[in-house]
Amino acid sequence: MSFVHLHLHTEYSLLDGMNKIGPLVTRLKEMGQTACAITDHGNMYGVLDFYMKMKDAGLKPIIGSEVYMAPSGRLNKDKEAGFPNHLILLAKDFKGYQNLSHIVSIGYLEGFYYKPRVDYEILEKYHEGIIALSACLKGEVAETAAKGDEEKALTIAKRYQNIFGKENYFIELQNHNIEEERRALPILRSIAKRIGAKTVATCDSHYLGKDDYAAHEVLLCVQTLQKMTDKDRMSFNGPYYHVMTEEEMRERLPEDEEAIQNTQLVADMCNVEMPLGTYHLPRYIEEGQTTPWDAEVNRQLLEKMTMDGIQRLYPPEQLEEATARARMELETIEKCGFVDYFLIVQDFTRFARRKGIAVGPGRGSAAGAIVAYATGITEVEPLRYNLLFERFLNAARISMPDIDMDFEDARRGEVIQYVRERYGESSVAQVATFGRMEAKQAVRDVGRALGMLPKDTDLISKLIPFGTGLEDALKAVDQLKKMYDDGTKLSGTTVKELFDTAMKLEGVNRNFSTHAAGVVIADTELTNYLPLQRDKDGNVITQWDHNLVEAFGLLKMDFLGLSYLGVIQNTVKMVKDQLGVTVDISHIDTEEPAVYKLISSGDTVGVFQMESGGMKGVAAGVQPTSIEDLTAIISLYRPGTIKAGGIQKYIDRKNGKEKVNYYHPSIEG
């Protein structure tokens, strides 16, 4: 195998690329490919996902991006700025990957104007370890060559070659059955010879197979809010943008065998190894500390904070047990390398409380850590409730700990800003999330593109059971299956065409937004590890979702904003202002019978985690009388799996002792 795809768009070229990474890798294996590049439009959203799946399949991942070049500079953002050109950049090694991350991030953070744009200045600064390809007809060289101006195209090519080095700049040759390409090809070959550059054969792949062409045209309509019947709609010129085989590439470019062979040469030059399996945790330095970071100093600091907290929080008769438990936890925390992690969490938690920002008492397995309780991270006492530290952190199975923090939503931003200022603006960012085209959405999007009336797409969409994929919906809903098989037409389109097209687009990434809670903190400038951009509100966010951030070994924390905490905070203030009574919400009576009577009655609108219809039914069935009862029903109840009221409480009396148990027929034990 000598041909390698060096110009390929995945579903992370949002609403433009259709290549889902999993099926793409499978197809590459079937074709006998040994390597492939990812070059999405202006971003690096999918590079780590692509890297890991390619590695798992025994294939070489080539990390790249098709960046946008601003003709008049990235900082020029007026109407005369001009349309940006394309340029393919591929990382040769991890240094090149880091430089590519810097380039792509700058495109968003500094150069964004309709598109994330970079310029020659940025390329000159971050060219090390990067291979550049001249790109498609949107590239400066090919676009100029297509106009017949060989000398100008030659000058542009020389400039790129001077930036990246003669051995790192390649002229792309493409044939997608476009007249402009046919005009450009002989000029591009001539330019390559004149400047001593090698050529590479590429296909601007946007979808997997030839039969995906029609669905991809619909996807473009979804992107542009156009219909397939629109004469001026965005369109590719035919089924020539799939992941071609080597034989197909030779058919497209029969005169360019050397260019096909050179793709393997480029693949051999690209050898990025991601530092997976290690953690990149920030280092904690106490405010006011003048000495450099020291692991032993921090170990002693966490131990002192913990022991001071235990002395303050526990009565004399529990000190021995609490101290022994704390020392065991501290030993595990140190062994796992998470001392700084705890210090950082207690730091911003302490800030929030100092500023009067409401902080939740703790959630999840972190409440099982007495170190978290003693240092003020949580307010749940582990010994009283027999909570296990090992559920949170286990030396036998080291993984990144996960402490989710709740803050009143109106002031959550203050905590995030403190973290930015404390650990460095360039080392902190919020985390991205991607919205996929789920079944119902796919039907509506495709139906609109095909010109169907909203009432007809709504009819089909409502027949699809919630959470069910399109293929399963056809099997489960007789009415849908009948309409599909009988050739039923709605708004002039058959249900079969609607479904077949929607099934091809189902699951494709549709949009990009900011995760509701995730914040990442690194030990250095984040762009050394991953690319960044801004969200619609101007916040700096990662280009990866939380799963990829964690897979890379970065510290991701959830800063959840809860309106309920604000309600509680405001209520406490009102009680103080109007009645002169100070309520300490951290020390309330958890055994007050009137509270449990209220919960058992189902009158819980506005009560966190207890106000849904299902939870009201469960509470009515259990009739809780203790905090343990509430813990059990909140933990056991899952909408759609356990019927409201189905959880029952019974008391097991043995040897003169009572043990409370909870039962539901669907839960063994």
UniProtKB/TrEMBL annotation:
GO molecular function: DNA-directed DNA polymerase activity
Pfam families documented for this protein: DNA_pol3_alpha, DNA_pol3_finger, PHP
Polymerase/histidinol phosphatase N-terminal domain segment(s): 4-71
Entry-linked InterPro entries: DNA_pol3_alpha_NTPase_dom, DNA_pol3_alpha_thumb_dom, DNA_pol3_finger, DnaE2/DnaE/PolC, PHP_dom, Pol/His_phosphatase_N, Pol/histidinol_Pase-like
Record-linked CDD domains: PHP_PolIIIA_DnaE3
Keywords: DNA replication, DNA-directed DNA polymerase, Nucleotidyltransferase, Transferase
NCBIfam families (UniProt xref): polc (TIGR00594)
PANTHER family given in the database record: DNA POLYMERASE III SUBUNIT ALPHA
Name of the molecule in the record: DNA polymerase III subunit alpha
Organism listed in the record: Candidatus Cryosericum hinesii
